[in-house]
Amino acid sequence: MSEQVRYVAKNMRLDLRLIADMIPSGSRVLDIGCGDGALIDELTRMRGCDARGIEIDMAEVAQTISRGLPVMHGDADTDLAHYPDRAFDYVVLSRTLQAVERPQAVLRQMLRISERAIVSFPNFGHWQLRLQLLITGRMPMTSVWGKPWYETPNIHPCTISDFFALCEAEGYVVERWMAIDEAGRRSPWRRFARLANLFGEQALFQLRRA
Amino acid sequence: MDLPEQGPIAHQSAVFTDGLVLDCGQHLPSLTVAYRTYGALNAQRSNAVLICHALTGDQYVGETHPLTGKGPWWDHIVGPGRPVDTERYFVICINVLGGCMGSTGPMDDRAPGEAPWGADFPPITIRDMVRAQKRLIDHLGITRLFAVVGGSMGGMQVLEWAATYPEMVFAAVPVATAFYHSAQNIAFHEVGRQAITADPNFAAGQYYASGRTPKDGLAVARMVAHITYLSEEALSRKFGRKLQGTTRPTPHSLALFGDMFEVESYLQYQGNSFVNRFDANSYLAITRAMDQFDLASEYDGDLSRAFAGTRTRFCVISFSSDWLFPTHESRAIARALNKAAANVSFVEITSDKGHDAFLLDEPDLRRVLGGFLNGCALHAGLVEDDR
After folding, report:
1. What is the spatial distance between Cα B184 and Cα A122, in angstroms, rounded to a whole number?
2. Quick check: is B181 catalytic?
3. Residue B259: which CATH number?
4. Coil, helix or strand at residue B325
5. DSSP per residue over A97-130, as a string?
6. Do residues B35 and B155 both lie within one domain?
7. CA distance A59 to chain B (A)
8. What pLDDT digit, counting tens, does each position of B309-335 carry?
9. Nearest chain B alpha carbon to A74
10. CA quadruple A98, A102, A108, A112: dihedral sign
11. What is the widest separation between alpha-carbon atoms in chain B?
12. ipTM confidence score
């Protein structure tokens, strides 16, 4: 790897690095909720992708366009409908699915406008959350789920098992999946979904239309 | 301030003796395109940026205006080290067709030796303006513009350029604009036009010979329009209900009402200074062209078809307090571009300065425009990746 790749890598969230590694060079990519544009920057500069972003925070949008990256102000619930079928090879939704208004509809749009979808979300089935709820009887709070129920933007929490069930109901092919810890490192529970659901802090899925 | 009477300015221009066929079907027998350039065209002729001016703007985007003596009208945007960097780009700005700063317009004679067109100047469209610009770009030997940038009516031209000559536009930046002129905007324009034509000096548009121009009507038109360029917040902050200390008689001051509000005085100044640099018939012709603009209608009502298959990179920019070209109109452009699978950036810049914000020093506008063009320059191979 060249100096440049490492330069970018050290500035990128580890889960974004995992996602970047799932996307072949030259792909057409839409990153929904692209934040500061780290993933599109990496995909554009290092992998020759045609990568674009959608971001809901206007200040982030201005900042990211100022860095020369193509970003559009918009949100996952309303703006995906305006893209044509199969406009992209990959659509990415990282740590955002639990915060959208209609996760099922958003996933359908993603797999309409793109061949493949990469989705990451915090796993509500993690043992700490289960234990807290069991013992205290109150909504659990961890470093991943860091805000009280009345303030959290994460209005649609789900577990890894829930997500598998949704994919099956919607007829999506799970091409790859992995559990990752909060820092974005891979957890060793890949083969065992039920263990991953207990010990994985976050999940990363690659889906394809059936 | 009234400017001293002076002879006509020799504007830099190119003349196309075969004229131009207009959208209305009429043929302008000769076409003059007045323009200014800044910076140097590179050997590959790949660094040209076309700046499209707004309704009452002109080609003097990067220098002191020869008539008014005022500074460059887009000083924060165009110049050395600015977002549209004249040390990197070859910047071209063209007086629009129908204008009064040297390009063919109502002030010109119909034919050599005949009277000026006046109000009989053929109806023109935004697309006609763009076709006239294209003639000059061809004439300069430029086959692809690195970028076309413009605000308000300039933004309409940007959209028209990208739709009509997509292969000639690498990047397009429509700012504070819309793909059609709204009923509200047409309504305000109509008030302005009525003010002009109601002026006794208007003389059915043939006022050039008499030397008495419909300047009162034109001033009122400018005053009405100027209100639409501002926001309530900007007006309140700037003037509030403050009274002007001394009233001085102007064509529009009504002394019997007593003291003037500062905002009245300000508008009168805007109106009166405008008439010294703008022609009433041009104002009629250009406002009409804006009102007629509906890019979607040129493509069966589906704006995305105007951009089908486009490879142009777009950056659509609006301002939060702009009620003349509100953000939802820019968002509609961005969504149509999404539908065409185009590469589009879209941002609303927070500002309380209304439509005028695009002409003022808005740091976010500078950053966004500069960053977008830098990114495009990288993709166009104009600059090396220095990271």
Report:
1. 48
2. no
3. 1.10.1740.110
4. coil
5. GGGSS-HHHHHHHHHHHEEEEEEEEEBTT-HHHH
6. yes
7. 9
8. 999 999 999 999 999 999 999 999 999
9. B346
10. negative
11. 67
12. 0.90
Number of structural domains (chain B) is 2
B2 within domain boundaries = no
What pLDDT, on a 0 to 100 scale, did the predictor assign at position B244? 79
Q: Which residues contact B162 (CB under 8 A, 6 or more apart)?
A: B148, B169, B172, B306, B307, B310, B312, B314
3-state secondary structure of B231: coil
Query: Which residue of the set B13, B152, B318, B351 is catalytic?
Result: B152
Instruction: Tell whether A1 is within 8 A of chain B (Cβ).
Output: no
- Does residue A94 carry a pLDDT above 60? yes
Instruction: Give A166-203 as a 3 state SS string.
Output: HHHHHCEEEEEEEEECCCCCECCCCCCHHHHHHHCCEE
Dihedral sign for Cα atoms in the order B77, B80, B85, B90: positive
Task: State the residue range of the domain holding B109.
Answer: 13-181+299-379
- Please say whether the beta carbons of A9 and A39 come within 8 A: no
Q: Which residue segments constitute the domains of chain A, with CATH numbers given?
A: 3-123+158-209 (3.40.50.150)
Helix orientation angle between A38-47 and A14-22, rounded to the nearest 10 degrees: 40
Distance separating alpha carbons of residues B106 and B365, to the nearest angstrom: 34
B322 an active-site residue? yes
- The Cα of B283 is separated from the nearest Cα of chain A by a number of Å equal to 35
Residues 6+ apart with CB under 8 A from B159: B172, B174, B177, B179, B295, B306, B333
Residue B255 gets which letter from DSSP?
G
Angstroms from B87 CA to nearest CA on chain A: 19
* Calpha distance A145→A123 (Å, rounded): 9
Residue with tokens 């509609």: B332
pLDDT tens, residue by residue, A128-167: 999 999 999 999 998 888 899 999 999 999 999 999 999 9
Catalytic residue among B128, B216, B322, B356: B322
Cβ–Cβ gap A65/B371 under 8 Å: yes
**pLDDT of A2 higher than 50:** no
User: What's the CA gap between B362 and B347, in Å, rounded?
Assistant: 14
Residues A15, A119: Cα–Cα separation, whole Å: 11
- Average of pLDDT values for B342-369? 97
Residues B132-187 have pLDDT tens digits of: 999 999 999 999 999 999 999 999 999 999 999 999 999 999 999 999 999 999 99
Please state the pTM of the whole predicted model: 0.93
Which helix (H) or strand (E) element contains residue B364?
helix B363-379
